[in-house]
Amino acid sequence: MADKRDELIKYMAGQFVHYIDTPVEEREQRRRNKQAAKSAREPWVTRWFGLAPVTLFTALFTWMRGMRGTAPSTVKAAEGREQG
Q1: Contact indicator for 51, 44 with CB cutoff of 8 Å
Q2: Taking a C-beta distance cutoff of 8 angstroms, is the pair 23, 30 a contact?
Q3: How far is the C-alpha of 3 from the C-alpha of 42, rounded, in Å?
């Protein structure tokens, strides 16, 4: 048990020393590169499930937009024909 703890302390001390020895500019550059790579990734839904969710969302949105845009005028026109 003490052996694992000593190894962990050595590892953490090594990481800390490496961090302190690294120039600030290099750390900032590495941070900027990480952020740029993260923002360039595709969305998690696409990575996990492929294009199926995107396709379904697009189809649903198009269908709902079509229903909302044409349904009231179609219903009104049909009501007018039935009454007249």
Answers
A1: no
A2: no
A3: 43
Q: Print pLDDT tens along the chain (84 aa).
A: 789 999 999 999 999 999 999 999 999 999 999 999 888 888 877 778 888 888 888 888 888 887 776 545 555 555 555 555
53 near 46, Cβ under 8 Å? yes
Alpha-carbon distance values, 68 to 59, 73, 74, 81 (Å): 14, 10, 11, 21
- The reported pTM is 0.42
CB 51 within 8 A of CB 59: no
Dist. CA 49–CA 7, nearest whole Å: 40
Half-sphere exposure of 58 (CA within 13 A, CB side): 5
Secondary structure (H, E, C), 45-83: HHHHHCCHHHHHHHHHHHHHHHHHHHHHHHHHHHHHHHH
